[in-house]
């Protein structure tokens, strides 16, 4: 919980420092990176992973505890997500980057099928906002996703 707060505070500080950019601004490198991220997860096509991520990607979904390092683990992670969450989409929010680091906000809407990051299987739709904190080496080389699991559980009637 405290790690999540620290990351969120850093993200807010980046936004307030004047480097904020609306996701739709075509000139924004960070918005373009975030849009590629959203497009990848929405396409459900693991073959496009390395258009967005480096082959040595370190990917962490903090609330679920899932992580992947390198191309094989990440492809397996992404394919597992696509298989488990066939009804799932992301929308890009604001983004900010400075040098080789940045973040972007996203909104995730999905149907809770069994296995969709959590074995609840209510078949209900949920929506949750989150943030991806990224390192950039041409493409995303490190990605840590933060979102509120309690929000999802509340919407699914499990909290």
Strand-helix topology:
Layout: H1 2-19, E1 20-21, H2 29-43, H3 49-52, E2 53-61, E3 66-69, H4 70-84, E4 88-98, E5 101-111, E6 125-137, E7 139-147, H5 149-155
Parallel strand pairs: 2-7
Antiparallel strand pairs: 1-4, 2-3, 4-5, 5-6, 6-7
Helix content: 25-40%
Main sheet attributes: strand count, strand direction, barrel closure: 7 strands, mixed
**In whole angstroms, how far apart are the ends?**
18 Å
CATH class: Alpha Beta
Instruction: Report the CATH architecture.
Output: Roll
**Unreliable parts:** 5-27
Number of strands: 7
CATH topology: Nuclear Transport Factor 2, Chain: A
The whole-angstrom Rg is 15 Å
The tally of domains stands at 1
Task: Give the DSSP E fraction (strand runs of 2 or more residues).
Answer: 35-45%
Mean pLDDT: 84
Helix segment count? 5
**Order of helix and strand elements from N to C terminus:** HEHHEEHEEEEH
SSE-based structural type: alpha+beta
Descriptive report:
The protein is α+β, with helices and mostly antiparallel strands and about 160 residues long. It has one domain (about 1-155): Roll (Nuclear Transport Factor 2, Chain: A), CATH 3.10.450. The protein is about 35% helix and about 35% strand. It contains five helices and seven strands; from the N terminus they run αβααββαββββα. A seven-stranded mixed sheet has the order 1-4-5-6-7-2-3, with helices on both faces. A hairpin with a 4-residue loop joins β2 and β3. The longest helix has 18 residues, at about 1-20. The two termini are about 20 Å apart. Mean pLDDT is about 85; it is low at about 5-25.
